[in-house]
Design goal:
The structure holds 2 protein chains of 2 kinds.
Chain A (H helix, E strand, L loop, with lengths): L9 H13 L7 H17 L14 H4 L14 H9 L5 E6 L2 E2 L13 E5 H5 L6 H6 L8 H9 L4 E5 L9 E7 L6 E10 L4 E10 L6 E10 L4 E10 L5 E10 L4 E9 L3 E10 L5 E10 L4 E10 L5 E10 L4 E10 L7 E10 L5 E10 L5 E10 L2 H8 L5 H17 L5 H26 L1
Parallel strand pairs in A: 1-5, 4-6, 5-7, 6-8, 7-9, 8-10, 9-11, 10-12, 11-13, 12-14, 13-15, 14-16, 15-17, 16-18, 17-19
Antiparallel strand pairs in A: 1-2, 3-4
Chain B lengths: L1 E10 L5 E10 L4 E5 L6 H9 L4 E10 L2 E2 L5 H7 L1 E4 L11 H15 L7 H14 L4 H5 L8 H15 L3 E5 L7 H14 L5 E6 L3 H5 L4 E6 L2 E6 L2 H9 L2 H6 L1
Helix pairs in contact in B: 2-3, 6-7
Classes of the chains: A alpha/beta, B alpha/beta.
Chain lengths: 449, 250
């Protein structure tokens, strides 16, 4: 019998070489080094994710990464980066990563609210805390993902945020990751948010490039939340340079009687794969994963999530709204697992898509793996065009077509945005959506002329 | 004044002709009723006047105050003064009624080169029009027409008509789905808008609506044409004799 040795692509070979070159200098205690080595071995065995892997079926990373860009090793703080930071509206704590490296001089570390501790990941990785490897690994459902393995092997920096028991934060903590785009680089960063019992906090995660050159970005954020906590997460990927290829993983382990709500706004994100691995560690918790994807041109946005109901009495809701024009592609893969003893699980998953023209596509793949017998779980996926009757009605009242379309699209996206609890952030998200729609409106006026 | 000359219309994607050489004039200040059996082309006529895209005009013209509207998109026709009260008003989830009303009023003002309404002025106008139609203010904060009853939807149409102040109002089976009380409120709303500068085209199956909105002229439509024109007594006559005689005449 012939032994089949898979041929490695140029990018895979380059990644192996890079890891061999840098593994000695990447930060980490012995257990962290072992974590990196194991992850990279796992990656080498499987290679870059490709379309024959079910969980990566619609985002062929092997095809997308023709070459592995050189690893970013330091922050390049350009005038564009400073200008962009000045324009960001978020009050409160701001933790800035530039090219994947934590940049204290751009962050607001002085005057951290009581109960909030922040460490650069480079420091956390060499700390003596015993649970570090466990925290970094996240829920076991993420173990087999090769995109995440690469992040584990090559993560260089990020922030490690700890919020102590009972802390209620008035303002969000923003983790802002900017790629300078001075050179084409590969950026691997990971951040951790540990929210202890009873914590109330909002974490905003921003990922942008200031250009001009495109990066390969592999980012991850790990949440571990305690019992009775209420953690809101808002991710904004709204300004990436074309040709950017980005994998963004979210790992979350949620305590009992807790709430965890994540919302992601994606527009002008080039090629983006968001993957969620979320596990219930305690009973009676509510988890919501929601988002809006606004796609045009040749953009590609993949939302792949695994929701692990490992305990009884969990409530989960997923709602993703996709508006797709141009030649863009949207992907939604949602897997809800209900373990044998996870009775009284209540799960509801929805993906709703409006295709704006013929060239746009959407792939939906909902999966329910239910091993308990007393559960309520449902899913629904719709793909449609804008309703011509609705548009005629609005136009018959005097709204020009672009404005009528914008109103319908805004309302469509708004059904997911309403789950952003913070009022200022919700308004900010709506304003970003309106800005995207008005650009579309302006370009349709141009094309009509 | 609305003038329709020799209008011939087919469904855009089908080989089905619906309007076959229709002629009709509605003068300023006139309330004209169109009656006719199912399938005679009444609703199609209203859509074609308002600018719906599903139809192809093969011949003829539609003039509003001497200007041919057939080249205009629906929004331009609205700004020019045409208003269609829908038989089945559309539900627009996620768009608050107030937001929609303001967008519509300002879009029309903008198209006519007028300044946008200031919010206090806008709210004052909406509140007074809503009161006149017994529309609950809470309804105005809800998404447009979503979950409204049939009667509420029709009252919302008349509210829009009052606020947009068109010169040519087309009511497409506004009486359908209304109980007696709702019919009376809606009819009073329409009557309050009767004005020497405003024309009405009231499309209906039944004479009932015309008891409340008394027309100046009644046209009978059959097979895509006007086959008889008379005064308000024609409606009463039709109620007795039915449409059978006109189906043959067409």
């Amino acid at each position: 019998m012939a032994i089949v040795t898979p041929l490695k692509t140029a990018a895979e070979q380059a990644l192996s070489q890079q890891f061999a070159n840098v593994k000695a200098e990447l930060p980490g205690t012995l257990p962290v080094r072992k974590l990196r080595e194991d992850a990279f071995a796992g990656f080498e065995a499987k290679g870059l994710p490709h379309r024959r892997l079910e969980s990566w079926r619609y985002t062929d990373l092997r095809g997308l990464l023709r070459e592995a860009k050189p690893l970013a090793t330091a922050a390049r703080v350009t005038p564009a980066i400073t200008a962009r930071l000045a324009a960001l509206p978020f009050d409160g704590v701001r933790l800035v990563l530039v090219d994947g490296a934590f940049t204290p001089e751009l962050s607001t570390l002085e005057g951290l609210p009581e109960g909030v501790n922040v460490q650069p990941l480079t420091e956390a990785l060499v700390s003596t805390r015993e649970d570090l490897a466990r925290i970094l690994s996240g829920p076991s459902i993420a173990d087999s993902d090769t995109g995440l393995m690469l992040n584990t092997a090559l993560m260089r920096d990020g922030v490690f945020v700890e919020i102590t028991e009972g802390t209620e934060l008035a303002a969000p903590i923003a983790i802002v990751s900017l790629a300078s785009g001075e050179e084409e680089t590969a950026i691997f960063h990971r951040s951790v948010v540990l929210a202890a019992k009873g914590v109330k906090a909002t974490i905003v995660e921003v990922s942008e490039s200031t250009g001009p050159k495109a990066s390969q970005i592999n980012g991850a954020i790990v949440f571990e939340t305690g019992d009775e906590s209420d953690v809101q997460h808002l991710r904004l990927v709204t300004r990436q340079v074309p040709e950017t290829v980005q994998v963004q993983s979210l790992l979350a382990t949620i305590g009992a009687h807790a709430k965890f709500e994540s919302f992601a706004l994606v527009c002008k994100a080039a090629t983006l794969r968001q993957q969620y691995f979320v596990k219930y560690a305690g009973e009676h918790s509510e988890i919501g994963l929601r988002g809006v994807n606004l796609l045009g041109g040749a953009e590609h946005s993949d939302v792949t999530l695994v929701m692990d109901h490992a305990v009884p009495h969990g409530v989960s809701r997923e709602l993703f709204k996709n508006i797709i024009g141009g030649e863009a592609t949207g992907v939604f893969q949602g897997k809800v697992i209900v373990r044998p003893h996870a009775q009284k699980t209540d799960g509801g998953m929805k993906s709703n898509t409006l295709l704006l023209n013929d060239g746009a596509s959407m792939f939906n793949k909902p999966e329910l793996e239910i091993f308990a017998d007393d559960v309520v779980c449902g899913h629904g996926a719709t793909v449609a065009q804008m309703d011509g009757e609705q548009l005629f009605y609005l136009m018959a009242r005097g709204l020009p077509r672009p404005q009528a379309e914008a109103l319908v699209l805004q309302a469509f996206a708004g059904e997911a945005v309403e789950f952003v609890a913070d009022e200022a952030l919700r308004a900010f998200v709506m304003a970003e959506i309106e800005a995207w729609l008005s650009l579309r409106e302006a370009s349709s006026v141009v094309s009509a002329v | 004044m609305l003038e329709i000359r020799n209008l011939v219309v087919k469904i855009a994607d089908e080989d089905k002709q619906i309007i076959n050489g229709l002629n009709l004039t509605v003068n300023d200040g006139e309330v004209a009723a169109i009656m006719g059996p199912n399938g005679s082309g009444k609703s199609t006529l209203s859509y074609v006047i308002a600018g719906k895209e599903d139809y192809e005009v093969l011949d003829g013209e539609i003039l509003l105050n001497g200007e041919n509207v057939l080249e205009m998109e629906a929004d331009a026709r609205a700004a020019a003064g045409i208003f269609l009260a829908f038989q089945y008003p559309l539900e627009i989830p996620g768009v608050a009624t107030m937001t929609f009303l303001k967008a519509a009023m300002n879009a029309q003002r903008k198209a006519r080169g007028e300044a946008e309404l200031l919010t206090p002025d806008f709210i004052k106008r909406v509140n007074s029009a809503a009161d006149a139609l017994s529309i609950d203010k809470a309804m105005l904060r809800r998404p447009l027409n979503v979950g409204f009853s049939g009667g509420e939807k029709k009252r919302m149409e008349i509210l829009q008509m009052a606020l947009l102040s068109p010169s040519m109002c087309i009511l497409d089976e506004t009486d359908s789905g209304l109980d007696i009380d709702a019919l009376r409120i809606v009819a009073e709303g329409v009557n309050a808008l009767r004005d020497k500068s405003r024309g009405f085209l009231v499309i209906t199956h039944y004479q009932r609506l015309l008891d409340h909105i008394v027309p100046d002229t009644v046209h009978v439509m059959s097979k895509g044409r006007i086959v008889k024109t008379g005064g308000k007594e024609l409606a009463l006559e039709l109620e007795k004799s039915g449409y059978a005689a006109y189906a043959e005449a067409a």
